[in-house]
Amino acid sequence: MSLTKENDSTTPEDEQRLVNIKNKPDLSQMYNLYDFEYVARNTIPSTAWNFYSTGADDEITLRENHASYHRLFFKPRVMRDVSKIETWTTLLGKRTSAPFYISATGFGKLGHPDGELNLTRAAGKEDVVQMVGTLASIPFDDLADARIDGQTQWYQLYVNSDRELTKRTIENVEKRGCKGIFITVDAPQAGNREKDMRSKTIDQDVKVAGGEHNDRSHGVSVAVTSYIDPTLNWEDLVWIKTITKLPILLKGIQTAEDAVLAAQYGCHGIVLTNHGGRQLDFSRAPLEVLMEVMPALKEKNLDKNFEVFIDGGVRRGTDILKALCLGAKGVGIGRPFLYAMSTYGVEGVQKAIQLLKSELVSSMRLLGVTSIDQLGPQYIDHNSFFSRSVPADKLFDKVYQPLANPPFKSEARL
Ligand SMILES: Cc1cc2nc3c(=O)[nH]c(=O)nc-3n(C[C@H](O)[C@H](O)[C@H](O)COP(=O)(O)O)c2cc1C
């Protein structure tokens, strides 16, 4: 089965891609998450690359998500016994080997025939949490079946206009042992994702959640999100809580005001995220939002038994440490695991997780802390944070693909 139209065509780009695949670096040569992105950009089908990498509009938020981490510096402490470092923590009450998790992304099969099964298997082997997405290209029950004993999965929920369907989904997710429901609240419609919109040839074989009547003429993003209920509002939480005993978290909070409301409506937590820069361009970096959310929750005494997660632009162990120092309980990572999966399958995802764990261990040791619970704001210098200017970012610039203009037809001279 072909996943995209371009698999059937023989453009020079496709031929070059096949040559690149044969000549890609060995997995042992991957030293950081950017290495996977670099290999992906040069080997995976353009429909997959465009859907995975795209941000919204001018991609200002996409770049700012990552750049924001470069405006925080550390205040390391020395002369402490740092011989033994432990990275384990608890997320929603379950112990896990590291304070980061695989965030929900859709359409894994665009990048690899086994799709999100790669993510489930690697997460199981490495003991990290996987947030399974509504738009996964592998059915949820298959991803639940692929879990090993004790492995934690969370479920990312898009509330469907067909509320009966949403109810059945929640009931099944609970029955199948997921440990939390993350309702995505930042997508009453798909963002304006132009890289993706230029990939208009989605093969009808690619399964699209939400039925057969979606508009497939504007790229993958629009095709898959047209069923999401734009009437979703705070009062719906009351209804959702009658369906399940699972912890309910809101994914997509971007202000202190909404963080406080989520706690007051009885949510178990929130994810500070702008959907990886794929929704409203000029949304602030989640790291900046975190800095106003934690004091606001504390002031109202809402920070106990309420877990704040963050995602977007996290690419290094030091990024994770910075977020945790400022109060995040856990950190989500999206695209890098898609790139690792698309290029090297399960082993690729495992390697990416191992690299992050190893960066965490070495950075914690150099920071002077031996366990996650020791992290705090005393280790952070944010003097340059609000200037919004960042040091040059060579690896990011190398893998970042600038937005394109429409191609002229063959005779044109530009
Ligand atoms: C290809 C792709 C698909 C995504 N699909 C969803 C989705 O269906 N639901 C959702 O809540 N978030 C989705 N996200 C957002 C991620 O869960 C996460 O917030 C984001 O990827 C984090 O940014 P990062 O990719 O820079 O790590 C998607 C992200 C990507 C890159």
What can you see in these coordinates?
It is a single chain. By secondary structure, the chain is an alpha/beta fold. The chain has one domain: TIM Barrel (Alpha-Beta Barrel), CATH 3.20.20. Helix content is 38%, strand content 11%. The protein is built from 15 helices and 12 strands. The strands form 3 sheets. Strands 4-5-6-7-8-9-10-11 form an 8-stranded parallel barrel, surrounded by 6 helices. Helix 2 runs antiparallel to helix 14, helix 11 crosses helix 12 and helix 13 crosses helix 14. The longest helix is centred in the last third of the chain and has 33 residues. The chain is globular, with a radius of gyration of 21 Å. The two termini are 39 Å apart. The N terminus is likely disordered. The structure holds flavin mononucleotide.
Question: How many independent structural domains?
Answer: 1
Q: How much beta, percentage-wise?
A: 5-15%
Structural class: alpha/beta
Contiguous runs where pLDDT drops below 50 for at least 5 residues: 1-7, 208-214
CATH superfamily (homologous) name: Aldolase class I
